[in-house]
Write a structure and sequence with these properties.
By secondary structure, this protein is an all-alpha fold. It has 2 helices and no strands. It has a domain of 41 residues. Helix 1 crosses helix 2. The longest helix has 36 residues. The protein starts with 15 loop residues before the first helix and ends in an 11-residue tail after the last helix. The model has no long low-confidence stretch (mean pLDDT 78).
C-alpha cells in the first residue's frame, strides 16, 4: 500500500502518532529531570491530546465561519475585485 492509497490527509494536530511522539519526547525530557511517566499514561495522554486538538480545530472552524459572515453582514463597503490589465 502506498502513501497515496491512504484516506484523505488530516491536519498534523489530529494525528495520534504526532501526539504520541511529542508525549514520548517530553516524557523522556521529564525523566532527565527526575519525573517518571508510565507508558500507559503516555498513551492515554497522547490519545486525549489528539482528540482535544481535533475538537478545538472544529470549534475554531465554526467560530471563524461565524466571524467571516458577521464581518460581511456588518460591512459598510462593497468588496472590490481587482481589474485584470
Amino acid at each position: 500500500m502506498s502513501y497515496t492509497d491512504l484516506d484523505p490527509a488530516k491536519p498534523w494536530y489530529s494525528s495520534a502518532g504526532v501526539w504520541g511522539g511529542l508525549v514520548a519526547a517530553f516524557s523522556g525530557l521529564a525523566g532527565v529531570f527526575g519525573y517518571a511517566i508510565s507508558p500507559s499514561d503516555q498513551a492515554s495522554l497522547a490519545h486525549s491530546l489528539a482528540g482535544l486538538a481535533g475538537a478545538l480545530a472544529g470549534v475554531g472552524s465554526l467560530v471563524g465561519g461565524f466571524v467571516a459572515v458577521w464581518g460581511r453582514v456588518r460591512a459598510t463597503k462593497a468588496i472590490k475585485t481587482a481589474s485584470v490589465p
